[in-house]
Amino acid sequence: MSLFKTALLTAALFMSAAVSASADSFPVKIEVDAAKTTGPVEPIWRFFGADEPNYATMKDGRQLIGELGALSPGQVYFRAHNLLTSGDGTPALKWGSTNAYTEDAQGHPVYNWTIIDRIFDTYLARGVKPYVEIGFMPEALSTQPEPYQHNWRPGSGNLRTGWAYPPKDYGKWEELVYQWVKHCVERYGHEEVASWYWETWNEANLPQYYWGGTREEFFKLHEVSVKAVRRALPEARVGGPDMAGANDDFMAAFMDHMEKTGTPTDFLSFHAKGGPEFVDGHVRMGLATQLKAADHEFRAIAASPAFKDKPIIIGEFDPEGCAACQGPANAYRNGTMYSSYTAATFPRVAELARRRGVRLEGALSWAFEFEDQRYFAGFRQLASNGIDLPVLNVFRLFAQMKGQHLAATSDHETPLDTVLSDSVRGDADAKTDVGVTAARDGDTVTVLVWHYHDDDVAGPDAAVSLALNHLPASFKKGAIVTRYRVDKDHANSFAAYQTMGTPLAPDNAQYAALQAAAELKPDAPIAIKDGRLTFDLPRQGVTLLVLKPAS
Description:
Blueprint: H1 3-16, E1 25-40, E2 47-50, H2 59-71, E3 76-80, E4 101-103, E5 109-111, H3 114-125, E6 128-134, H4 170-188, H5 190-194, E7 197-200, H6 215-232, E8 237-243, H7 250-261, E9 267-273, E10 277-279, E11 282-284, H8 287-302, E12 311-318, H9 336-356, E13 359-366, E14 383-384, E15 387-388, H10 390-399, E16 404-410, H11 416-422, E17 433-441, E18 444-452, E19 461-469, E20 479-486, H12 493-499, H13 508-518, E21 526-528, E22 532-537, E23 542-549
């Protein structure tokens, strides 16, 4: 069956809302109980970030920041490295700078907020708030300033250079942080800055990469940073340590130290990454690796009486560890492998947090864009040269889910414990993951369904039979259903790029076609009367159904 015929059949199945499964699909039963709520919808997806802070102020960066802000204006946060790094603001892979701090000939501090202001202004003008990472070390303060800028590139080079070392003077570092926060309050207002997150450094438990000092030196850096933030703004929301989820004891040691010193801690943060591989000519994702990394830190936090009730931000939550790296194992990024993985991962990390009894407030996708690189170059990003990738459309689907979660089950959703032990692997449809999450906000019911497998190989569609039980009285005349799709044929700019022959430089007509292919467009609404409908969902596809009462 051709892709065109499959797309036509899928449309026909959904429009009729009552047909049997096609020959190359397998049946899936999903039930949603609209009368049984299971807790509020927490928008943990609304956090994003990138190594390169200066991309945000460039042409495609400004556009993408605006798209992120439009997801939920005033509720989306952005984290960036290098906000205090020395340099002229010229970006590079895994690099950026603001030149916020230099010293005169007598060693006196010179503060310059011009570039940082431009970055934060760009966020705020587009409905995005800063998740402020306090780092990295200015050249004039570094204990090992030379060489300062790293020479890293994909596959080679040294990442840890002068920017990664402790300060030679902790008093000057504290004053730098104080003056920065004070300036932000003066520029943006007390109430605005109090709504931001402030955290210290990045992955200080990985000394070969982001921290050239000892654990104790990082703890001291964190303490004086928190002191400086609170001195400038006592109501500021401060936390940390944004450590790599490396299954070590760093989080436990951090909590113990901060409890002993009485250092204010408003939230805890760590990173959780997956582990894709290239196997037998295709990508195999590592969903279990990412979830187990998160669960390790959830357990550590839950075990601490002093910290178990603190909000948690997973400061980087991604399929693997290096957004600027390329290679065969990262070939999932441009297409629907990334989007379906994302849809399958976020509900499960939320479920893990509920299981451990901890407060997950956010899971930050370390993905943005890479300015003026080759189209669909294979970086981990949300858009390429101003063209949205399928994964960004999954966040648009998440953004439509509000109110209260509803009880929802799928007979082909892989149980959480199985995902943790085996991920989603195996042959045929028996091992595929067709999962569901649903919500109700007043008279609107939303149902998100994903069809995921760790292996990026072809497989049969899921023929979904959905039963929506106990719809509110407002639905007595039936429901109007609108469907959104992110799959091989919908909201997929990369598939369109491949179809047009992967041009090195798309012309105006091709560029417009790619933008149109990237757009998340709703299907024509249909009416149902009994709360039952069927539809096909391709492998690595995601769909959102939005139900409103028929008038």
